[in-house]
């Protein structure tokens, strides 16, 4: 097993991006140099670590075996760096922390919560990556991620953040011009806004089964697009209660007939639980998100 951290760093970059160009960009190395370094590492080990496929550079069995050791080395280096720099002094948290999240929470909750954390820690850089998919923490796409369901596999720790509510919602302009909407049975006469069915990345987001409607007239994989359609009076759809005060111009309908409860979870790489700096940030993020959901839902 190699003990050179520089070699392991190169290996991790290619494993996580599945390409020489992506790994080179992350490390600021040209792909040709990175290719030579990886080839040299494979020669030292006497085993191929990657195989070229249509999907890019995929780990071989030997690469899969090396991956957890490389990640453990990375975590150890990070702990040493943080200990040297100090996880927090009188100025608070420092450095950079990246959060991955579905675009609903990324658009309507994280900006105000992270803004408050940033004011408390002026030397901390916070990055929010909003993507409608599950984040791969083993590839270090983010330091931590928010999920709508608790993952059951992988070397991860999971903390429940809070429950949140969703209701059918519409703009007054839409309701004024549309057929009456008095019961669930009336939904068949309305234009429904929702997810693209084959792009629902988590079963907790499959709201159409609750609405019992096969057709989605206006569909997007983005919650922000969906809520903007609703706000513009294009149709009706399921919306987060916490988003309604932020968006404005939308009201809940059929409240007693259609009401959903879902949960947010904070997911982290298990090794990162040893890093005090990330623990402090996670604790503040959890409390901030819980308070903000409660505040906004009370205004819905």
TrEMBL record:
It comes from Aliishimia ponticola. One of its GO terms (molecular function) is sequence-specific DNA binding. Pfam families: HTH_1, LysR_substrate. Keywords: DNA-binding, Transcription, Transcription regulation. Residues 3-60 form the HTH lysR-type domain. Belongs to the LysR transcriptional regulatory family. GO terms for biological process: DNA-templated transcription. PROSITE patterns: HTH_LYSR. This is LysR family transcriptional regulator. It comes from the Bacteria. InterPro entries: LysR-type_TF_proteobact-type, LysR_HTH_N, LysR_subst-bd, WH-like_DNA-bd_sf, WH_DNA-bd_sf.
């Amino acid at each position: 097993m190699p003990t050179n951290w520089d070699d392991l760093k190169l290996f991790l970059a290619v494993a996580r991006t599945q390409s020489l160009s992506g790994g080179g960009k992350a490390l600021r190395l040209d792909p040709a140099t990175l290719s030579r370094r990886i080839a040299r590492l494979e020669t030292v080990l006497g085993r191929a670590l990657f195989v070229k496929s249509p999907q890019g550079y995929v780990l071989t069995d030997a690469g899969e075996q090396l991956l957890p050791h490389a990640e453990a080395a990375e975590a150890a280096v990070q702990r040493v760096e943080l200990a040297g720099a100090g996880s927090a002094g009188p100025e608070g948290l420092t450095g950079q922390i990246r959060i991955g999240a579905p675009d609903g929470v990324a658009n309507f909750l994280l900006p105000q919560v992270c803004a408050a954390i940033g004011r408390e820690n002026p030397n901390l850089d916070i990055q929010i990556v909003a993507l409608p998919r599950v984040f791969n923490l083993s590839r270090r796409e983010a330091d931590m991620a928010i999920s709508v369901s608790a993952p059951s596999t992988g070397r991860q720790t999971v903390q429940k953040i809070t429950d949140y509510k969703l209701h059918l919602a519409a703009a007054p302009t839409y309701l004024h011009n549309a057929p009456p909407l008095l019961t669930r049975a009336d939904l068949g006469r309305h234009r429904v806004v929702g997810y693209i069915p084959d792009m629902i990345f988590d079963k907790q987001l499959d709201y159409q089964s609750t609405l019992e409607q096969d057709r989605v007239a206006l569909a997007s994989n983005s919650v922000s697009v969906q809520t903007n359609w609703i706000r513009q009076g294009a149709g009706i759809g399921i919306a987060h209660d916490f988003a309604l005060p932020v968006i404005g111009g939308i009201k809940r309908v059929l409240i007693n007939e259609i009401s959903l409860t879902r949960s947010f979870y904070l997911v982290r790489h298990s090794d990162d639980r040893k890093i005090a700096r990330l623990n402090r940030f996670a604790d503040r993020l959890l409390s901030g998100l819980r308070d903000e959901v409660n505040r906004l839902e009370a205004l819905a």
